[in-house]
Design a protein that fits this description.
- GO terms for molecular function: 5'-3' DNA helicase activity; ATP binding; ATP hydrolysis activity.
- It is a single chain.
- The chain is an alpha/beta fold and 175 residues long.
- The protein has a five-stranded parallel beta sheet with strand order 1-5-4-2-3.
- The protein is globular and about 50 Å long.
- Strand 4, helix 7 and strand 5 form a beta-alpha-beta unit.
- The chain has seven helices and five strands.
- It has a single domain, classed as Rossmann fold.
């Protein structure tokens, strides 16, 4: 009940855009229909309330007695999320990545059960995550859920400041 109280108190403090984001993800979790998206992106500059949105969502899901997973690309960012851990820790992402990398998490373990039971995965600082890490997590969740949809059909909220990532131009210069 404490989690639900925190969620309700936070919802009262959200601005209209933040409230829309929270309700959109909650709607996907609890009133899902086949034509609805399962992957969401929350983009915003530093100080725009992304962490507050994540916190509200995590409290709302936990307040209903459901599992929500909070991950971040860095340990510092993970400390700002309720129950947050690094993506590498939760998914057992290898340190050396390539296009065929796989996560070192075994099925039929307590860690795998947590992922299977999760109603939503909230991933902060997603733009800082290497694409091969996302591919490895995608493969892991597909294997665990036996579902070929992106991320094994899990509801996922990827957030961060997508302007922090500049395009890489081969043989380009700073000018």
């Amino acid at each position: 009940m404490e989690e639900q109280s925190k969620a309700n108190a936070n919802i009262e403090k959200l601005n209209s855009e933040q409230r829309y984001a929270v309700y959109k993800v909650l709607h996907a979790i609890y009133e899902y229909q086949t034509d609805m998206p399962k992957c969401f992106f929350l983009d915003g500059l530093a100080g725009t309330g992304k962490t507050f949105v994540y916190s509200t969502l995590l409290h709302a899901v936990s307040g209903k007695g459901d599992q929500a997973i909070a991950v971040a690309s860095t340990g510092i960012a993970a400390t700002f999320l309720s129950g947050g851990r690094t993506a590498h820790s939760i998914f057992k992402i290898p340190l050396t990545l390539n296009v065929t990398s796989t996560c070192n998490l075994k099925p039929n373990t307590s860690e795998a059960k947590i992922l299977l039971d999760a109603k939503v995965i909230v991933w902060d600082e997603a733009p800082m995550t290497h694409v091969h890490a996302f591919l490895a997590v995608d493969r892991l969740l597909k294997d665990l859920t036996k579902c070929d949809e992106p991320f094994g059909g899990k509801i996922i909220l990827l957030g961060g400041d997508f302007r922090q990532v500049l395009p890489v131009i081969l043989r380009g210069s700073r000018s």
